Amino acid sequence: MIITALPGIPERIGCTRIVKGVAITNPVGDPRLPLAEEKNLRKRLLEKAISALEKKIDRTLIIE
Amino acid sequence: MSKIAKTVYYMNQFFAGIGGEDKADQPPIAFEGAQGPAKLFAEMLGDKGTVVRTVVCGDNYFAEHQEEAIRDLLAMVKEAEPDIFIAGPAFGSGRHGMACAALSSAVAREMGIPAVTAMHPENPGVDMLKPPAYALPAEISAGTMKEVLTRMCAFALKLHAGEPIGPSREEGYLPRGLRLNRIDPLTSAERAVNLLWAKLEGRPYETEIPLPKHIDVAPPPPVEVSKARLGLVTEAGVVPMGNPDNLESWWATHWYSYSIDGLDGLTNETHCTVHAGFENTFMNEDPDRGVPLDMARELEKEGKIGKLADFYLVTTGMMMTTDNAQRIGREMAAHLKKEGIEAVILTST
User: Which of B114, B134, B286, B336 is close enough to B341 for a disulfide, judged by CB 3.0 to 4.6 Å?
Assistant: First the structure.
């Protein structure tokens, strides 16, 4: 699956499991947050990614 | 007046009359003169050319030994010293189309002679056709052989005569992804308004930039991640400090595998990004913002991820050509499969 701040791009080229990331400069991070919160955010993104991998789907899934 | 066009003609085992699927493993072989459809082609050439050699390869042999097949066929083609090269037509047949496209592209590139093939516009071979070779559109069924050969013959002779070739739409060949600049008497503002006007009035119009087609892929089945081997892959250009393999910052043609064995995260002392497509400061401060190793490790310890691969894969996605992207994706996938990885989290910038 893919984590990206621009889900429309992988969606168009055939990726089927997509999680929306934070930003182009930091798809799985956020420099505006204090470190502990940032790590939590990263962990939640990974948990969303894992849930996408574990879901049976018959068409593209985008998790925001 | 052009000199006579000496032609070498390629076709698969079926059109050469060697056999059907049962002979699809036929290795490259050359026949003097014209075989199969090359005979009709030779008639169409008339006194403007001759078919001096027909080279043939089984569709399966070509698909399974592409490098050697091209090498051996190219040698057979070169030996006959042709002025033009013709392949196919492949119609709707995928393996034949890919062989015609790959061989025509190699001949055009290495020998600098006109190389023309033909196939249905949705034949997988179309994507493999590279300039300076040309592919003409054909129907799916081989029933239209005479009509296609007529067009191929006329087009090949035009190339042989050195005549200038215009855009694909005007000349009747399949687009090859090349855009040629030319001056238009109207400004883009005028053309845009004209286009909108035609659209609003229900008149025919044609976009200047067709949007890429949406690609449909069947979703792979789910994976139980808590029991699976999971790999991290990125196009964010995150590499060990010092970029030991010189991963390119843009127009990348390479990808690399780096060990994360024993690492609980990436730091600004151990890793950095070399990607030229975005402001690197934040990812350099903490490369986990590109490759989420720290939290992936935590999830592994908690049992939510069965086992993290002991490596991650990286390339740089800035201005990567689609050809390279597809090749790199295939190579990475093969590597991941070989390493027993069952699921991947790809991070993209």
Answer: B336
pLDDT of residue B2: 61
pTM of this prediction? 0.65
CB pair distance less than 8 Å for A50 and B221: no
pLDDT > 70 fraction of chain B, expressed in percent and rounded: 99
Q: Provide, as residue numbers in chain B, all residues whose Cβ is less than 8 Å from the Cβ of A28.
A: 288-290, 292, 295, 347
Would you call B160 helix, strand, or coil by DSSP?
helix
Q: Residue A45 is encoded by which pair of tokens?
A: 């993104």
For B180-203, how does the pLDDT look when each residue is reduced to its tens digit (9 = 90+)? 788 999 999 999 999 999 999 999
Q: Is the CB of A12 less than 8 angstroms away from the CB of B345?
A: no
Round to whole Å and give the CA distance between B53 and B41: 12
- The number of C-beta contacts closer than 8 angstroms across A and B is 112
> Hey, are the CB atoms on B219 and A2 less than 8 Å from each other?
no
Residue of B nearest to A31 (CA): B282
DSSP alpha helix (H) spans, chain B: 37-45, 59-64, 66-79, 94-111, 145-160, 168-171, 188-200, 281-285, 293-301, 322-338
